[in-house]
Amino acid sequence: MRSRQTPPSLERVRFGPTRTLNVRTGKFTGEEAASRVESWLRSKQVEIGGDVLVITGRGLGSLGGVPVVKNATHRVLNRLRRLGVITAFGEDTPGSFVVTLAPLRTLLEAPARRRTPVAQSSKRSPAIHGLESATRERLHYLAARSIDALGVKNASEEQIGREMMRQFTVIARSAPAGVDTDSWVDGAISRAMREYEESDR
Length: 201
Known about the structure:
- This protein is α+β, with helices and mostly antiparallel strands.
- Helices cover about 50% and strands about 10% of the residues.
- It has two domains: about 10-100, Ribosomal Protein S8, Chain: A, domain 1; about 105-200, no CATH class.
- Helix 2 crosses helix 3, helix 5 crosses helix 6 and helix 5 (about 135-150) runs parallel beside helix 7.
C-alpha cells in the first residue's frame, strides 16, 4: 500500500476505473454512500477480487466539517469485514480507502460456518431454474465442494440442493443492474472453483 502522501490522481491511475469507486463527487448522504459502497464491493468480490479503491473525500465541504460520507463508509467497511466480503481496509489518503476483497469462497462458506441464514436483501434474486443446465451442473459441483470443505462428508442431494440455492442467492444478488444472471453466476463459479483448486495445492 502506498503512503498517504501519494496524490489521489495517481492512486486512481494505479487502480484503474474498474477497481475504483468515487462517492465523493455524487453529493450522497451517508446512508446513500454506504449503500452504494456495499453494493459495489459485493459485486467486485464476485467479479475480480484483490484490492480496490474507495474515494470518499475528507468531508471538508460538509456541514460543520464532519466527514459524513467517509464515516459512513468506514462503518460499512467494518460490517463487511465481519460478513466475509472484505478482509482488510485502511486509509490510503485522508480521503480514500484501499480495501482488500475476501476470497469468494470465504463469502460462500461464511453463513454455513456460523450456522446462520443469509442476510435478507431488498434486491430480488432471479430464480435458479432460469439458469442454463450446464451452469446448474457447475453450481451443483461447487455446492458439493463447499460442503466437503466444511467437513461434511457424503452430503445428501437435499443438502446439496439447499446449498446450491443459498449460493445462487448470494451470487445473483451481487450482480450489477443489467448484467446477465447466467453469465454472472457462471463467472463466479469459475472464480470460486479456482480458489478451491489453489487451496488444495
